[in-house]
Description:
The protein is mostly helical and 366 residues long. The protein contains 17 helices and four strands.
Amino acid sequence: MILIPVFLSIILVYTVFAVYAERKISGFIQDRYGPMEVGPYGILQTIADLIKLLIKEDIVPQSADRKLFIAAPAIIFSAIFAGYAVLPFAPGLEASRVSVGVFYLLAIISLDVIGLLMAGWGSNNKFSLYGAIRAVAQMISYEVPLSLSVLAVVMTCQSLDLQEISYQQSLWIGDYSKISDSNYLLGIESLGINITEVGGFLTWNIFRNPVLMLSFVVFFVASLAECNRAPFDIPEAESELVAGFHTEYTGFRFAILFLGEYAIMLLVSFLASILFLGSWNSPFPNMGFLRLADWTNGYPGTFSGIAWGTFWLISKAFSLIGLQMVIRWTYPRLRVDQLMFLCWKVLTPLALIIILISGFWRLMMN
């Protein structure tokens, strides 16, 4: 229970800096200054906006369904926040290690769809309802290719345990991994490289199984739609819906919805890093006398292992968040028909092909 306020504090601090960073990135891309007035370089602008939200009047529309309206933000954020429980932040550092962590994570995140629909319906506002319907249709659709891309990793690693998947991408794959297939553990040794000694980016899933590079692209695109991020921000299309499913929300409840959006950005970035980009492992390989992987990894169960692991995982996740922000301010919003075409006729068939290839690749490694 003590970890709950710790994680909440971390997410809140991250959100404050993420909002500031996004404003600065958008300003740079659009050749503007971004926030400049409140604090040095506008660094306190986000804090001022947060204080403004907290002191604003909390309004519940008279004709709204009060119970649904009040409960929706809590359900949305709780579903997202619960996903952090199974993330391995370093070797030996996770809130809860469960053998079906991948399944749990995909299942618990899906519950925020219920909160979105409750917010739209409970507001008794046609724009909120339209936004909620769009959001639910989009998120349920894109969960299909996202889940299939994750399944390709599960087939490759033969595990639903996120920490196990992390160990399989590390220098200690033979010491800590539960998998007993020696041919698979050696990975690409047939090319003259023993990844159990070299480490670094060569142990990442996208290099151990080359087709997972394409699976990562599918996952990343689908995760943008899951987060309602541009160019998949149709549920919040302000030119059509005023604000979308959260049109009627003000003050603290709006802040919770806003916090949930940035929390899920961080969550899917962590998940992408764990599944595809080596998790908490260093990207630097051992090269002869330069033992870069040994020097920048630390050993499991030690303070250096926890420190290095946390640093690398957070660095990878923040890099993906930065990429999400750049994409938001670079590409135009998709139309509804384009969005569904991309999901059902491009990403889903591609994800199915990736699963088929991953199955053959797994058989070849045996």
